[in-house]
Each structure stands twice: as C-alpha cells, then as structure tokens.
Amino acid sequence: MYSPKDETTRARMEDALAHAAARLSTTTTGAPAWGWLGRTIGSRTAGGHWLRVHCGEAAKTPATRNEGIALAEERVSDKVSRPHLHDLYRWDGGEYVFEAELIDYIAQPVISPETPDLTADPGLPDSWWTTLRESLDALSTAEPPRETIRQSWADRVFPEFLGIPAPAITERVTGHADLQWANLTHDPLVILDWERWGAVPVGYDPAMLYVNSLRVPAVADRIRAEFAHVLDTPAGRIGEQIALAEMLQAVGRGWYIELAPLLRRRAEELTGVRPPAHINPTAPATSG
User: Fold this and answer.
1) Beta-carbon neighbour count of residue 75 at 10 Å?
2) Is 46's pLDDT higher than 60?
3) pTM of the entire predicted model
C-alpha cells in the first residue's frame, strides 16, 4: 500500500482523520489506509462507512473549489458503479486545506493498491467489463463540473513529451478523468476517487486505462477490444495521445520507470514520431 512521504505528513494526516471523525460524529476502526504520497488517508468507521480525508496546500487550492464527490452525488446516474456520499466536511488548517468524505464502505479491494499501472492480470470476469462499459456510458451524459483536460496544457506538453504539435480538442464527454487500476476494485466493480471528474476528450478514460495496462498485454488487448468503438476513431486517437502525453510527462518527472519504454513505443506507433526522452525525477504530473 501507499505510505506517507515523511513523519510530518503522517502526523498531520492522522490528526486530520481524528478531527474529521469527531466533527462527523463517528469513530474510526482499524489501521488507516494511505493514498499517494500521503495526500489522502482513510479508515473504516464504526457506523459501517468509510472516512476519507484529502489534504491540499492552501496556496494552490482555489478559494472556490469544484466539489468532486458532492457534485457526483447530485449529477451522476446511479447506473455508474461508485460509492455514495453520506456526509462532507471541509476546513482550513493554515498552510493546508482539508476535505473529509463519509462514503460507502467498499469491501472488495482495489486491483492495484501499489501503483496506478497494472503489473499482473487480475483475471476479471466478463461481468466486470460490462459494468465498466455501462458505467462510462452512463457517466458520459452527466453535466460536468469542470473541463479537466485543457487545450493550453496540451499545447505546452505535446511538443515536449510527444514531439508533435497538440491537436485541437474539439470533442469531449463527461469522464472520470483518473481511470487507472488504483481506482478500480475487483469484481464487483466500483469506481473510486471522484475528485477530478469532468469534461474530458473523447476516448481519454479508456485510453488512460489502456496505457496503464501495457505491461500486461492480455489486459491491454481486452481494453482495446471493449472500447474499439471509441479508441479506433479519430477523436479516440486524440484521446489516447493525450493520455500518453500525460503519462510521459510523469515519466519525465521520475515516475513509471518500467512502463516508460512501452509508453514511448506506443506513442511512436500512434504518431509516427519517436518521443523525446526525459529524465527529471521531481514532482508528479498534472494536466489541469
């Protein structure tokens, strides 16, 4: 599982979890579960729910925030397999801002708790894939709270990480915008982490899952088969290029070392241009 990046982060987040539990009139049970770099912490509660706390830097958090999971509860169809929100609490903590969500407890584990990309075939049944397709179809028509992938980001990142000018993003649907294996559970499927959902380029969600599966060809091939009606269209190919650009930006910042050669190979297959090599292990990528 993930772990906090240092003891200061651990103490801050454990205090935040305890504070949120008290304000939401619940108690946590068991050891906490950590998100990436200790930015989130969660625990099962005595009331049979899950309490998740997210921390962001106040200087980088807009005063008016898009309420990811809260708006998902209002706008996203119940046909989308996701946890439901029961309570929400936000507070400022000086240098940091916190958001606590009391949501459904999901018993089945996520498919890849260690990393967003897939390292072994999870042996998912046909019913899992059916639920994924139906969920993305139902989500695609919801009113989005934001435009998640911006043209300005693509214009900046494509030449540097794909070696080509960015195409115009003209076709969008509402998507999850973080569809990778750490946010998907084993059967029965539940899609987790609704912080980033919004208007995304057509094909971006299945393409992101596909490029995070390149180390497991059988699963990558299954994704292409399940979503061929999207990925094999001109708009879908742009969505895949965007997913690759985002992943290669992360590679340039020191992530996905083992996946990197496969990402570059796929990018060259798709664009006909060998992407530049970048080695700069600093911070994680964003595409906002």
Assistant:
1) 15
2) yes
3) 0.91
The span from the CA of 204 to the CA of 212, in Å, is 12
What is the 8-class DSSP label of residue 84?
P
Give DSSP secondary structure letters for 51-72.
EEEEEEEGGGS-SS---HHHHH
> Model confidence over 146-177: pLDDT tens digits?
999 999 999 999 999 999 999 999 999 999 99
Structure tokens at 127: 């019913």
Question: In whole angstroms, what is the distance from residue 57 CA to residue 159 CA?
Answer: 30
Q: Which of 71, 6, 69, 70 is nearest to 39 (CA)?
A: 6
Cα separation, 181 vs 121, in Å, equals: 11
pLDDT at 91 over 90: yes
Measured between alpha carbons, how far is 67 from 58 in angstroms, rounded to an integer?
16
The token pair that represents 67 in the structure block: 């309420």
